[in-house]
Amino acid sequence: MAKGVLELKKYLILAVVTLLAVLLSACSGNVKSNDTSAENTTTQVSTSVYETVQTSNAELPKIYNPTNVEIRDNEDENKVIIESSQIEYVCLLDDINGMVLNMKLTADGTDKFADYTKNNIGSAVRFVINGKTVSNPYINVEIIDGNINFTGDYTNEEYAAIFREIKSK
């Protein structure tokens, strides 16, 4: 029985790592913030040793160096965890499950957020745009690579509206 549990864990870890790799590669193009074109690509993702599935990742424009986005502590709204200057870019990903808002941090932001998430797993943060909170996601794991994906119960249109709000400044 223990061997079966270990095999299951192995496949779950492989699936999570593969999903993260797809999300990271989807945001690695050269689309600039004022470019409104989007390139559609199809990626094969191996979810286990025996199964391959197709996912469609349409990369949408990136907003480089946003000036109106912060991540704040959920308990102390005045405590800024990540400042705009620590965000390299923000982009939307069209995932097979719908839109995902992706944020790539600078090296300084990556180190700071890794430390914060390590010490605050299970806590929520505040995703703030133009001074107003748009989301309170929970920290599920330590985020050490500087890539933050905001997912939630938003429609694609709501994600697009959040993205336009970021782009407005």
Protein described:
The protein is of the alpha+beta class. The chain has a single domain, classed as Gyrase A, domain 2, CATH 3.30.1360. The protein contains 3 helices and 9 strands. A 5-stranded antiparallel beta sheet has the order 1-2-5-6-9. A 4-stranded antiparallel beta sheet has the order 4-3-7-8. A hairpin with a 2-residue loop joins β5 and β6 (98-105). The N and C termini lie far apart (56 Å). The model is unreliable at 14-57 (pLDDT under 50).
Strands, helices and their partners?
Layout: H1 2-26, E1 39-46, E2 52-64, E3 69-73, E4 80-82, E5 87-95, E6 98-105, H2 107-119, E7 125-129, E8 132-135, E9 147-150, H3 156-167
Antiparallel strand pairs: 1-2, 2-5, 3-4, 3-7, 5-6, 6-9, 7-8
**Beta-strand content bin:** 25-35%
CATH topology: Gyrase A, domain 2
**How is the largest sheet built, in terms of strand order?**
1-2-5-6-9
Mean pLDDT over the residues: 74
Shape: globular
Q: What's the CATH first level? A: Alpha Beta
In short:
With 169 residues, the protein is α+β, with helices and mostly antiparallel strands. It has three helices and nine strands.
Keywords:
single chain; Gyrase A, domain 2; 3 helices; alpha+beta; 5-stranded antiparallel sheet; 4-stranded antiparallel sheet; globular; 169 residues; 30% helix; 35% strand
